[in-house]
Fold each of these.
Amino acid sequence: MKDRLFCVAFTGLLALATAARAEITVLIGHNENGAPTPSFDFRRVPHPAKTGTMGKFTIVDGKMDDASGGLGKLNDGRMPTEEDQPDENFFFNADTPGGRLRLDLNQVKTIKQINTYSWHPGTRGPQVYKLYAATGAAAGFNAAPKHGTDPAACGWTMIASVDTRSKDSEPGGQYGVSISDSAGAVGDYRYLLFDCSATETDDGFGNTFYSEISVLGPEEVAPAGAPSGDANPVESKPYVARTPDGKYEITFDTSRATNMAEWTTNKLAPALLEWYPKIVAYLPGDGYEAPKQFRVILRPGNGVADTSGNRVNAYVPWMKREMNGEAIGSLVHECVHVVQHYDSHPQNPHPARNPGYLVEGIADYYRWFKFEPQSKGAEISKRGLARANYDRSYRVTANFLNWVSEKYDQDLVPQLNAAMREGNYSTNLWTKNTGKTIQELNAEWKDALKKKVEGSAAGGG
Ligand SMILES: [Zn+2]
């Protein structure tokens, strides 16, 4: 696969006056005909947003081809699975020069990235379009400028001109385009207008098979890291694998850590594929479905790992140092965060705040007492005893959870988790499940820890 980078500077009148300059970047990814990838993997163009894009597409000018799957295909998050699948794409009618599509995001939003994807073995593969954006608030705004009307003259801002055709390769294959602004966001807009052209006029079949258009806000775009430089594009292809039960898919991206690709495929992936379904089974919820897909990205940076939604970031320097140590366990901990999924409370408009020590404590409880109990990583030493308290987070809270579970209620952690996921956590839950307040449990636990430490010291004589 090949990617090309275009930096296009647009200098508006205002920008001239203030010397400020928005620099739009257009990245193009191409998997040549006959070499497709199942999830539209490109080296630098991100994957399509699996969740789709909120908003509504409308044809402003032109006519849809009746064989097309319709406008809904553009933002449903689903991709065609074959190279010539008319009903999984949107395209304008044969023998027409293209047309104009408007996306209404329903409200003004900060747009960080606009990604467009297409797939066809012939001239309906490449993409040729101009992109405009508008808030809708400009005086004289025309929401539906037809062919022949310059959008820039009726309230629209020109964002980019895209042409993925290449002189040195045959047209056809999978194409991905990613439009962003090097300085930050593309802008705050409600409407996007795609002025699409046919890719050729030799015959009537030059209208692009558009598979998906993803519009991403700041929280949906991963922070930019170091460019992959001269990394071998073949090695940088993500490793996509399914869990043994076939239910879940994990993508492992080592494009910025190619020297960890082997460890990732041979050591990390088998462990997470085995354990993710177990975590899902251990932390159920009424009507709750854990994410079916998520990504683990090995990336440069400081720290250990973090999780945001369906994206797990694993930071290379630490992971590399801990390859044969704590790396895999730390990512099992992150998988628990993927399953916890505490950020959404669909049934609960006024969710209670989840204590951070418990969020981390549950993840570490699973890691240390279910995944790798033999490592005894959450034992509390004589020195740690003085500082032990139920709310010290991570391993200490994990140890507390384990003690209360064993003594009072083996189902405690799944129950706490389910309440937290629904935004219904309260300290009363401890009393309800054990008959003791959390403070009483804390005191008992510390007592038991003390006895254990003293006992083992005496026993070891
Ligand atoms: Zn964590």
Amino acid sequence: MSGKVHSVFGALVGINILIIVNQSEYIALFVPVYIIGALMPDIDMTKSTLGKLLYPISYPISKIFGHRTITHSFLGLIIFNVLLGVMFDSIVKTQYINSYIIRYTHFHFSVGYLTHLFSDMLTYQGVPLFYPIKKSFNIAKINSKKAPDKTITSIITMLIILTLVFR
Ligand SMILES: [Zn+2]
């Protein structure tokens, strides 16, 4: 599935969660976090959206692990959360960001990440959720190369607009 599908699906889930938990004033802040989370697993491909942007990171991951391995697992999700924590602790001066935002960034990033794993599980290749155990899990058998990405992106975008209009 394309980066566009993953982005809009992550955004749709994120917007709905923020509305359900009465945090819709944070939509503009956290929806980008959902989108980054939803794009992150495909950093194992140099030609993916984030892979192109973060080539010095995506290149070694793609060479060492290959596509749909560690980044498409719970282990990958834990590693990215650790890196996120390190980033908050060291690079970003935490006195400028309150602990509420840090805590919820981990949560929203993780849910965005899981929307990616979920949508890849709709394809017949599935994802190795418990990597390094290699068994792949899937809940449907869509051929991701034949998936009508533009149509899916349009439908999800319409759902986002409807959600924002009728919330
Ligand atoms: Zn993927």
